[in-house]
Every structure is written in structure tokens, then in C-alpha cells.
Write a structure and sequence with these properties.
This protein is 76% helix and 1% strand. 58% of the residues are buried. A two-stranded antiparallel ribbon has the order 1-2. The chain contains 20 helices and 2 strands. It has helices at residues 3-29, 33-38, 45-72, 77-104, 111-118, 125-157, 161-208, 214-219, 225-228, 241-248, 258-266, 270-301, 319-331, 335-373, 379-400, 408-432, 438-457, 466-470, 474-492, 498-508; strands spanning 233-234, 237-238. A hairpin with a 2-residue loop joins strand 1 (233-234) and strand 2 (237-238). Helix 4 runs parallel beside helix 10 (241-248) and helix 4 packs antiparallel against helix 12. The protein has 513 residues and is mostly helical.
Length: 513
């Protein structure tokens, strides 16, 4: 084993041990289910902001998005535009109302519990449907993060993908199992900081080593530089309206992401919420911009190798990994520093996987077990069930991610669409339209999730799925379908009872002590 590899291994080991230490520290402060799943609503502004954005972006930010831009050009940046707008709207429009309403609605700990309390669903129908949707789509989402980790270890160390997958999953599982929400948010804060530093430093150094005209360098890779650098082209063809709308539609998903929305619910107070909004919006704008820059600069910087095309070269989703290796192992002999920057990618992966594990765990233990199956269960029992479910979910996600050829982008896309279509419209209508009723809420959840499953998974158009045949992202369709169902069904059925309307007014006038 070379000294370079040893230095990188030391950096990785130090980072992973530190994450486990945080899990042990957090475990001492986690005494009940409320602490495990929501941190006692005690998050500070900076921790809430960076943990929300780090858990949101995942390995997709440092692998999926740069890889798409590397392969197809600036036209792929429309996804970043959609996500940036979605983040801004989420923090400025959704965060404060959701936090207030979850407090008024019997101090709801999870999104499914909020829906049940919001509509006084005594039969637990919303709770059951919401929890099932979370488990289904978050398994795929968690699998995408674990697959990112497997590819990272495989690319950096040459470790077998399956072994790498198990190593990454084991560390994430340990600190999430022990420390719950507090451990997840604390580690996510650190990981979000590492991601931003890596995004800032590496492309700047790489750009300094790109010699000659950038357009000439791009031409050597076989692309038309004018098209490659244009927002109006997607690969070798002019970008279509369907492609632009599909990419911008990614922003709609934010309204329905339980692992992001739970951060809003957990913030300490409104003063901290204002801090969180400013920090989160700044972080996401800078990070998305630099992720696009990495894809573009990497195309020229990594020459003569062309990822995905040169024999033996890694896939395009490894562009940031390869840039770090070239900068700190070839140009600058600083392998330990390079290892720390590679940990920034690992941080992106872990920050999402841990949040997804926790959301799945809370849905099964708090929403299904406690609220539906065993209402008399003690807090200690719910906490034990939550930790057990965390292990089960991790094992299932490993199974889904077992194929080394699975696409990170495709896995994230499917999960994001399902969660955004099912929950996004209902969150918006629950907060801003008091006429929404239980029947409309049920219709919205079912129609949104069903639309995505039909659109993306059933080959009903000449052997193709509707999504593949039309090129239209299922999230856009599912969001609209769900919104229409909520409105129409709510209007043709009985209006909400007076107690629900009174609670809605109480939330609108809610002020903290």
C-alpha cells in the first residue's frame, strides 16, 4: 500500500471515528422518543440550516449533478435553478407556518403525525398512508446515498463496491442508531461545512491549472463548446420546453421532503428560524453554482482522460473525486488534505443517508407502531422500536443499492418525485387553505404517489413507461394531479368541522411566549 493511500485512509478513519464519537455523545442526551426524533425542538439556527441543506443535497450534489453537467453540459444546470428556487421558497414560505402549525396541532413530531392531527383523523388513515409512502420512497432514497458511498470507496481505494457499501452503511447506522436526531443534525452541520469548503477550494485550484483556451480544451473532448456552455442545449441537441420544465420541477419537491421539513419543526424559536433561512439560502446558492462549475471545469481539467469514455475510466459521476485525486495526489503532494476533501463527498453522502434512516424509523415506530398499533406503548418502548427499525431500513437499502451499476441520479430522481408529489401539495394546502378536509388530504396523498408509480414504473406505452416515452418528469405531473385532487375532493365533500377551522385560525395567530 502506497504512502498516498495510507494518508487518505488516515483522513477517512479520523473522520469516521469523529462521526461515531458524536453518536456516543448524542446518545447521552437522548432520553426519549421526542429527543430521538425531533431533538426536543432545540436546534439553533446555523445547525438547522446546514443540517437541512446537507441532508437535502447528498452525494447527488457532489457526484450526480457534476456528473450530468460533465457529460451533457450547462443545459443540465436547469435542475440547479429549480432546486435553488425551491429551497428559497421553502425557507421563506413554508418553514415558519409549518413550525407554528405543528406546535398548535398537538406538538406533532413527524409529518404524518401532523397530517393526522391537522385533520383530526381519529381513524389514523392519513397516518398509515403517509407512513407507507415514506417507507417505500425513502428506501430508494437511502439506497441512492449508500450507492454513492460504495462508488466513492471503490473509486478512491479500489475496494470492491459491495464491501465499500457495507463499510459506509455500518458507520452511518452506528451514529444514527445511538444518537438519533441530535446526532444526525450535529454531524450534518459538520458535513455541510465540509461540503462547502470542498466545493469552494477544488474547482478554483483546478481552474488555475487549465492551460490554454477553455473552448479549445473542451473541443478535445469531442463536444461543441458553444453548445456545451449554453443553457439552451442538452448534450448534442437544443433543449426542449419539456426538458426545462422537468428540470425546474425538481424545486417542487422541497415542499414535501420529510427529512427537510422536520428541521423546520425542530428549530428552537422564530429568531433562530430567521438565521436559518439566511444561512440555508446562501449555502444552497453557492453550493449549486459550484457543483455546476465542477462539471464544466472537470471536463477540461481531467484531459486527456474522458470519464465514461476512456477505457478503464470511472463513470462521469466520479468527476469531483477524480479532480481531488489529480489536484492533491499529482499536482500538489498533499494526500492527507486530499483525503479530507474526499471526506467532503463522504459527508454529503452520510448527511442524507442518516436523515433518511431517521425519517423511516420515526414513521414506523412513532407513526405506525405507537399511534396505530400500540397507543399505550411507553416512550422507552418506542425508542427501542425506533432503533430496531433503523437497522432494518439500512439492511433493505443496502439490498436495493447492491447493483454497482445503479445510477445515483436515477435513484434520487424516483424518490424525490414520489415524496414531492405525495406530500408537497398537501403540505401547501394544509398551511394555506383552511377548506382542505380529510377526504381531500387522503385523495391528494394517494393520487400523488400513484401517479409517480404509474408514470415511472409501468411500461404501458409500447413497452416504455410514460416518463421514458414523454421525457416529462413525473414530479411535475404528480404534483399537479395531487393538487387538483385535494381541491376538487375537498370542495365536493363536507367542509371541515368547526374545531378544525378554529385550530387553523389559532395557528395563523400563533405567537411564541
Amino acid at each position: 500500500m502506497s504512502m498516498t493511500t495510507i494518508a487518505i485512509l488516515i483522513a477517512f478513519a479520523a473522520y469516521l471515528l469523529f462521526m461515531v464519537f458524536i453518536g456516543v455523545w448524542s446518545m447521552k442526551k437522548t432520553t426519549g422518543a421526542d429527543d430521538y426524533f425531533l431533538g426536543g425542538r432545540g436546534l439553533s439556527g446555523p445547525v438547522a440550516a446546514l443540517s437541512a441543506q446537507a441532508s437535502d443535497m447528498s452525494g447527488w450534489l457532489l457526484m450526480g449533478l457534476p456528473g450530468s453537467v460533465y457529460a451533457l453540459g450547462t443545459g443540465q444546470a436547469w435542475i440547479a435553478v429549480g432546486l435553488g428556487l425551491g429551497t428559497i421558497i421553502n425557507w421563506l414560505v413554508i418553514a415558519r407556518p409549518l413550525r407554528s402549525y405543528t406546535i398548535v396541532a398537538n406538538n406533532s413530531m413527524t409529518l404524518p403525525e401532523f397530517f393526522g392531527n391537522r385533520y383530526h383523523d381519529d381513524k389514523k388513515i392519513l397516518l398509515g398512508i403517509s407512513s407507507a409512502i415514506i417507507v417505500i420512497f425513502f428506501l430508494v432514497y437511502t439506497a441512492s446515498a449508500l450507492a454513492s458511498g460504495g462508488k466513492l470507496f471503490n473509486t478512491v481505494f479500489g475496494i470492491d463496491y459491495h464491501v465499500a457499501l457495507l463499510i459506509g452503511a455500518a458507520v452511518i447506522l452506528v451514529y444514527t442508531f445511538m444518537g438519533g436526531f441530535l446526532a444526525v443534525c450535529t454531524t450534518d452541520f459538520i458535513q455541510g461545512s465540509m461540503m462547502l469548503i470542498a466545493l469552494l477550494v477544488v474547482p478554483i485550484i483546478a481552474w488555475g491549472y487549465v492551460s490554454g483556451s477553455f473552448s479549445d480544451m473542451l473541443a478535445q473532448t469531442g463536444v461543441n463548446s458553444a453548445h456545451y456552455l449554453s443553457l439552451t442545449y442538452n448534450g448534442d441537441h437544443p433543449i426542449t420546453l419539456v426538458e426545462i420544465l422537468s428540470n425546474l420541477a425538481w424545486g417542487l419537491g422541497y415542499c414535501g421532503m420529510p427529512h427537510i421539513l422536520v428541521r423546520f419543526m425542530a428549530i428552537k424559536n422564530e429568531k433562530e428560524l430567521k438565521k436559518s433561512s439566511a444561512i440555508a439560502i446562501t449555502w444552497v446558492v453557492i453550493s449549486l453554482t459550484l457543483a455546476v462549475v465542477i462539471g464544466l471545469v472537470g471536463r477540461a481539467f481531467l484531459l486527456p482522460e474522458i470519464l465514461g469514455e476512456t477505457a478503464g475510466a470511472p463513470s462521469t459521476e466520479s468527476v469531483f473525486i477524480e479532480m481531488i485525486k489529480k489536484v492533491f495526489m499529482e499536482i500538489l503532494p498533499l494526500p492527507f488534505v486530499g483525503g479530507l476533501f474526499l471526506c467532503g463527498i463522504l459527508a454529503a453522502i452520510m448527511s442524507t443517508a442518516d436523515s433518511q434512516l431517521l425519517v423511516c424509523s420515526s414513521s414506523v415506530s412513532a407513526d405506525i407502531y405507537k399511534d396505530i398499533l400500540n397507543p399505550d406503548a411507553s416512550d422507552e418502548k418506542v425508542l427501542k422500536i425506533g432503533r430496531l427499525v433503523t437497522i432494518v431500513v439500512a439492511v433493505l437499502a443496502i439490498f436495493i443499492a447492491w447493483n454497482p451499476d445503479s445510477s445515483i441520479m436515477a435513484l434520487v430522481s424516483d424518490a424525490w418525485a414520489g415524496l414531492g408529489s405525495a406530500f408537497g401539495p398537501l403540505v401547501v394546502m394544509s398551511l394555506f387553505w383552511k377548506r382542505t378536509n380529510l377526504q381531500g388530504a387522503i385523495a391528494g396523498l394517494v393520487s400523488g404517489a400513484a401517479t409517480v408509480l404509474i408514470w415511472d414504473y409501468l411500461p404501458i406505452m409500447g413497452g416504455q413507461t410514460i416518463g421514458a416515452a414523454t421525457g416529462l418528469y413525473s414530479l411535475l405531473v404528480g404534483f399537479i394531479v395531487s393538487l387538483v385532487f385535494i381541491i376538487v375532493v375537498s370542495l365536493i365533500t363536507k367542509a371541515p368541522e368547526q374545531a378544525i377551522l378554529d385550530e387553523f385560525e389559532a395557528y395563523k395567530n400563533f405567537k411564541e411566549n
